[in-house]
Amino acid sequence: MDQNLIxxxxxxxxxxxxxxxxVSKVDDxxxxxxxGTKVAGAQSLKEMVSKLKKPWQIIxxxxxxxxxDDFIKKLVPLLDTGDIIIDGGNSEYRDTTRRCQDLKxxxxxxxxxxxxPGNKEVWPHIKTIFQGIAAKVGTGEPCCDWVGVEAAGHFxxxxxxxxxxxxxxxxxxxxxxxxDVLGMAQDTMAQAFEDWNKTELDSFLIxxxxxxxxxxxxxxxxxLPKIRDSAGQKGMGKWTTISALEYSVPVTLIGEAVFARCxxxxxxxRIQASKKLKGPQKFQFxxxxxxxxxxx
Length: 296
What we know:
Elements: H1 2-11, E1 17-18, H2 23-31, E2 40-41, H3 45-50, E3 57-60, H4 66-75, E4 84-87, H5 93-108, H6 123-133, H7 152-181, H8 186-196, H9 204-214, H10 236-246, H11 252-265, H12 267-274, H13 289-295
Helix pairs in contact: 7-10, 7-11, 8-9, 10-11
């Protein structure tokens, strides 16, 4: 994700200096995808900041949790007044609130004033970059804007990403009905999704579902049926569900999507249970399949 973001910025005439703790990744990128661009590389944090114009605008794409805390800790001693840290990862919003407050407290102690990602004064400094690289709606309006102080951005991102969880669950249920009830073949299902993508269902997820259903392995057979039905998760679904309970907001679809992933991950337990529990009998629909498909 970081490499694509850097190349996106480069394509929009913003000059970026890249650093990765695995330095070889920087070298590999500059020798391949970023070759011929204005992207600069650095072998250390100190070298990276030495190549930046003041005030520094540093975006971090680091794993949520302790890894982000550790990286900020390394970065803070290098910062001066007005430098900007942007957490571009999937941090839990409470962590973001804590980090913003910690940075503000250090400034209040006259160590140095630092503007965190939730400081509204920061937005004008980075607005041109982020709205420049963002996707645009039909009217040309960028899909990026100021949403609120401290952790508001990460809270919105958490909810947005988990709405996608619900979308994925609906697609999974549609696939189940098409395969196990209507008895549709892979290519026929792929065609149905392609047709749906030309309607009000037009979306990236519907588009790639059609492509995934069509995709064939090296042996010429469809790949999807070969994939182990065990999904993982990184925590955002759980955070959203917990927040919904705390704020008394019913998000039943998102909750069920999280539980479906939990159930999916219990692959070994499901194998053992299948040896003892018969489960429902396979049902073959013998009605109007075209009408049923439209209902799906």
